[in-house]
Amino acid sequence: MGALAHLVAGAVPDRVDELLALDAAVRAPLPLSTRVGVVGTGSGVGCSVVAGLLAATLAARRPGRVLAVDASAGGRSVLWHAGCTEPARSTPAQHAARRAAQSGADAVAGLVRTPGGVHCLDLTEDGTAPDRTWQAAVGPVSRFFDVVVTDHGVRTARAAGPVAATASVVCVVAEADRRGWQQGVDLASGFAAAGLPVVLAVDATARRAPAWCATAVRISPLSVVVVPHDRAHDAPQPVPARNLRPATTRAALRLAAAVLAASQDGRTVPGATATDGAARTGRRVAS
């Protein structure tokens, strides 16, 4: 409960109940491995930041293994934001050995593990990460992980098929402006129409969230979490969770709870869909 105690210590009294409920939701047992596909509406929207926060939050609170997968040809990756500072690519022999895994120990052999407990796998090579690579490298071993968080990078509706085929829940990341919000809603609605649970993460890491965001969250038919700006994201080395702003940690906890709830038959968690200005119960887009 160390991470939660740090957060609760700085919380106002009326927010403590929300934090305890979210923490319980994130720690709740899962019947099956949950595969989270994180996609962005455009370059630089914060997809890797959000994916890294999500993976680190889950690993800090769940007893099962959490795997973060970089399948996006970007700059600072989901692995870096989850706390990984060393190369995380596997050799062909390591991939082959894991495909034949018979136990959890076999499945994590050769994987880098962060101080926060996130297992890391980099699928990029020469600036690309073909979708078929995920199927071959992650598909056979995903059952040994409680949660697999994959950063798929920028996706359009036309290129979203491979993500829908491998994910049990999708997190769409969009910028905190009107154009970005609309793009996020459009992309998320496409996944929902295909029958997939979806959570929209509105990333304000590059700018302050505009005042209208709180209103948009309240009226949105999607489960929405606003991720605020944190200077730690620009640091030369990954910053431990305890050193993030309380608002960032709250948002990461809300996002983790919303994603896991959505993965379980589209359920929602009170307070999981919120900005700091307006907590609300999220609703899933009807499919």
Structure, described:
This protein is an alpha/beta fold and 287 residues long. Helix content is 38%, strand content 18%. The chain contains eleven helices and ten strands. The chain has helices at residues 2-9, 13-27, 47-61, 78-81, 92-99, 104-108, 131-137, 161-166, 178-193, 212-219, 246-263, and strands spanning 34-40, 66-70, 112-113, 118-122, 147-154, 169-175, 198-203, 223-227, 273-275, 278-280. The strands form two sheets. The protein has an eight-stranded mixed beta sheet with strand order 3-4-2-5-1-6-7-8, with helices on both faces. The chain has a two-stranded antiparallel ribbon with strand order 9-10. β9 (273-275) and β10 (278-280) form a beta hairpin. α2 (13-27) packs across α11. The longest helix has 18 residues, at 246-263. Mean pLDDT is 85; it is low at 268-273 and 277-287.
Regions with pLDDT < 50 over 5+ consecutive residues? 268-273, 277-287
Percent helix range: 25-40%
Largest sheet: 8 strands, mixed
Q: In sequence order, what are the helices and strands, one letter per element? A: HHEHEHHHEEHEHEHEHEHEE
In DSSP terms (H or I, runs of 4 or more residues), the helix count works out at 11
Q: Class by helix and strand content?
A: alpha/beta
Instruction: State the end-to-end distance.
Output: 37 Å
Biggest β-sheet: strands ordered side by side in the sheet: 3-4-2-5-1-6-7-8
**What spatial form do the alpha-carbon principal axes imply?**
globular
Radius of gyration: 17 Å
**Strand fraction band?**
15-25%
Count of DSSP strands:
10
